[in-house]
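Worked example

This section walks through a single chain of length 303. The input is the sequence exactly as stored; nothing has been trimmed or padded.
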Amino acid sequence: MNAIEFIISGMLAAATPFLLAALGELVVERAGVLNLGVEGLMAFGAVLAFIVVYHGGGHFLGFVVAGLASAGLSLLFAIVALGFRANQVATGLAIGILGQGLSALFGKTYESLTVKALPKLAFPWLSEIPVVGGLFNQDIIVWISLVATFGLWAMFTYSKLGLVVRAVGENPKAAHAIGYSVITVRVTAILFGGAMAGFAGAYAATIYTPLWADGMIAGRGWIAIALVVFGTWLTGRIFLGACLFGAVSLMGLAAQATGMDVSSQLLSSLPYIVTIIVLGIISADRRLLKLNGVASLGEPFER
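Given that input, the structure is written out below as C-alpha cells.
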C-alpha cells in the first residue's frame, strides 16, 4: 500500500471522531447555544467506554455508557448556562476542563492498556477497486456516522423538527411567541451534542486507537468546533471538512512511512495548522458567515 492508498483507505476512520463531535455541536449551535466543552466531553466518554470494553462489556455497551455520561456532563453545562444564564463561553470551558480532569482520574490505572477493535465491514467488489477500494472497507461505526450525517441533513432540510431547532437559534423570542419552549429545545440539543461527543470519544479510544493514554483526544474536540464554522453550519460541508482533517491527520504517518526527513512534531501539528488557515479564510468572508450563521448564537434567552 502506497502513501496515497494509505490516506484514502484510512480517511473516513480518521474523520469519524471529528465528524461525530461536529455533528453534535452543529445541532447545539443551530439551537443558539455555544458549547466549547466538546474536548472534555469527548475525553470523558472515551475513558468510560474504554473501561467498559476493557472489562468485557462490549463496544455497544461502551458507546451507550459514553453517550449517557457525556450527555449527563453536558446537562451540567445546560443548567449553568441556560438555567442561571451564565456566560456560555466560560461555562463551556469549565465543563471541558472538568471532563478532561475526570478522564485523567478514571483512566490513571488503565494507562497504555489496549482493547480489541471492531472488525471491518467491506462492500463486495467495491473494496477491491484499486487505490480507492479502501474507502469501502470500514468498521460499522464509520457507516453509522455516514447515515447520521445524511439523517441530520434531511432533518434540517425537510422536517418540522429541524425547522423548530433553526427557529429557536435564529429568533428565540418569535419561537417562544408561537408556543415553542426555547429552553426545552436548547436543553435537548445540548444533550444530543453531549452524547455525540461521547460517541466520538468512545470511537477514538476503543476502535480507531484501541488503547488508553491520558490526553489521547489531542485537540479533536477543538477541531470539531472549528469544523462547524468551517462548514458554515451546513451538514454536507462539515462532512467534507471532517474528511479533509482526517486525511491531513494521516499525512504525517504517510510521510514518516515514506522516509521523509521532516520533524515529527511538525507533522503532528498539521491538522492544527490547517485549522488556523481554513478558519482565517472562512472568517474573511463575512457575507458567507452572515448568510449561514446563527443569529442568536451564544446569547442567553429571556422571556
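What to look for: The mean pLDDT is 91.
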